[in-house]
Amino acid sequence: MGNEMKLTKLLTSAALALGLATTAMADGHEKTKVGFVFVGPIGDGGWTYEHNKGRLAVEEEFGDKVETVFVESVAEGPDSERVMTQMALDGADLIFTTSFGYMDPTINVAKKFPDVKFEHATGYKRADNVSTYSARFYEGRAIQGHIAGKMTKSNIIGYIGSYPIPEVIRGINSAFIHARKANPDVQFKIVWAYTWFDPAKEADAAKVLIEQGADVVLQHTDSTAPQAAAQEAGNVVTFGQASDMSQYAPFPRVSSIIDDWAPYYIARTKAVMDGTWTSTDTWDGIGAGMVGIGEISDAVPADVKAEALALKASLADRSYHAFTGPLNKQDGTPFLAEGETADDGTLAGMNFYVEGIEGDIPQ
Amino acid sequence: MDLSAINPILFVAGFLVAATPLIFAAIGELVVEKSGTLNLGVEGMMITGAICGFATAVETGSPMLGFAAAAVGGAVLSLLFVFLTQVALANQVASGLALTLFGLGLSALLGQSYVGIKPPRLPDINFGPLADIPVVGPILFTHDIILYLGIALVAATWAVLKFTRAGLILRAVGESHDAAHALGYKVVRIRTLAIMFGGACAGLGGAYISLIRVPQWTEGMTAGVGWIALALVVFASWKPWRLLLGAYLFGGITQLQLNLQGAGVAIPVEYLAMSPYLITIIVLVILSRDKSAAPACLGRTFHASS
């Protein structure tokens, strides 16, 4: 009898303590816990590396008021759902899921934890507690396309795709449009790697493209392996993807697209702390600083560099849109009329090549 | 579609290189499994070998020392598995998985200061006039010594298992550890040596990726080759030459599908992407209809008193 009493008392006080803790958290006195789910290792030197830099920036900004946790190399699909669930159970207040393939898992887990805020990168499904955010990488692709078109001597540009999703297809189209503008004879060879991160496979894909005559290789995969393959080949131009990859500058890497997630991650964490967080859809580009263009190296002729920088400036101040008509789809049907620009809805769901690209998009 | 864009000579030379890490890892695991032990830690030992080899090659400037260090690194890590399964008699499946996780973490830690560095290049062997033979020359005689070592290792493993007393003892231990023990063979010692051999081979395979195939260090860069090696051993029904065939099939079709994509062949990419797995499995399953079975004691714990 006595034991039972004690147990009840213990449970009550435990519940009370728990209740206090929860209240304290809502008041902002306790640490805000921010979780990150990464698709590759934080040392990939590309995509995940930059997201992790954003996480570290959050820690630096808020110091003791925040606690961050992350899990790396999480497979897209059911595994990710387990990881997110565990993070939510462990008391995360805000969870960033940083790969396209986490879209449905994020929505599923968010349903189960209505009080936890979720932020999904590069997807399009939102809920009351799920925001989406992405960067207009295609603006950077336009600049790469221009430089690629000017730099190629064989007129064959290789492109390593990851998965045939709108984000990747958008990038291919944007690069192609501007490569053709710079050099009407340019052709694209596209290889789908079906992975975001597999250095050996990415290196193989780059080598195959180089063997088939490409002297510029663009990549939409996360590791620096294609850079190493190009360096080995000796006369092949590459661009840093997601991160500066400056260890391969000034050649083969002649420029790069750099993702800068830090300001966004800081702002969203702050919103959770202040209780002002709402579900939003953010899509920023060069102008807002979410997409950076890495230094264009001296391997690029001065006039080409100047053109690329002018293009960057016009994209940044919105005087020029990377998808401006006249443009046709691959099958020749009209896409954009003279002077017309693509709206965000079309861009977000882009599932077709523009005219001039050969081959089919895997369905 | 432009098939003429594919250079068959470069293609074949390319897949010989692509298959080599797989050959090393798989032939090592074959010996381990022949001794009756199932080590699922191949991926962990490979990635550890990849960074040990890379770091040593960068620090000393010698790729050959790098490969030596990779073999040592893989073998040392496998000692952890030896301790868990042969001394502490822990479950082999769980211990192997733990070894993989441990290897991935350890390599990430060791590799932190080696990201973005270019390793010294291992030169191709100079075969002199042989390399000038049309077609055959560039395919067979333009590689580094490690690639030939991989093929030699398969041949040696086959010969040792089939023709020597040592091979007979190893197989006896794998088929019936109690009988082997009764005959006076040191089961634990023999298995320890087999596991260390497997670790050294996996380490060499990992270093081949980080020093030659890619060449750079990136966390997690083996990206599942160790698991494919494990599957390959089973589908090759524990036979060295079939294993070599399987590795070349897998490497070849992987390269071929990238080449076909680049040439714009109108086969849906999804089918091309899954074809290496599918075709390798189908061919090896057909070959293994002769019901050659796994070593009878595979995965079973041995204790001298039992």
Automatic annotation (TrEMBL), chain B:
<feature type="transmembrane region" description="Helical">
    <location>
        <begin position="193"/>
        <end position="211"/>
    </location>
</feature>
<feature type="transmembrane region" description="Helical">
    <location>
        <begin position="243"/>
        <end position="260"/>
    </location>
</feature>
<dbReference type="GO" id="GO:0022857">
    <property type="term" value="F:transmembrane transporter activity"/>
</dbReference>
<feature type="transmembrane region" description="Helical">
    <location>
        <begin position="266"/>
        <end position="287"/>
    </location>
</feature>
<protein>
    <submittedName>
        <fullName>ABC transporter permease</fullName>
    </submittedName>
</protein>
<keyword id="KW-1003">Cell membrane</keyword>
<dbReference type="GO" id="GO:0005886">
    <property type="term" value="C:plasma membrane"/>
</dbReference>
<dbReference type="InterPro" id="IPR001851">
    <property type="entry name" value="ABC_transp_permease"/>
</dbReference>
<feature type="transmembrane region" description="Helical">
    <location>
        <begin position="217"/>
        <end position="236"/>
    </location>
</feature>
<keyword id="KW-0812">Transmembrane</keyword>
<dbReference type="Pfam" id="PF02653">
    <property type="entry name" value="BPD_transp_2"/>
</dbReference>
<feature type="transmembrane region" description="Helical">
    <location>
        <begin position="6"/>
        <end position="28"/>
    </location>
</feature>
<feature type="transmembrane region" description="Helical">
    <location>
        <begin position="64"/>
        <end position="84"/>
    </location>
</feature>
<feature type="transmembrane region" description="Helical">
    <location>
        <begin position="40"/>
        <end position="58"/>
    </location>
</feature>
<keyword id="KW-1133">Transmembrane helix</keyword>
<keyword id="KW-0472">Membrane</keyword>
<feature type="transmembrane region" description="Helical">
    <location>
        <begin position="96"/>
        <end position="115"/>
    </location>
</feature>
<feature type="transmembrane region" description="Helical">
    <location>
        <begin position="135"/>
        <end position="161"/>
    </location>
</feature>
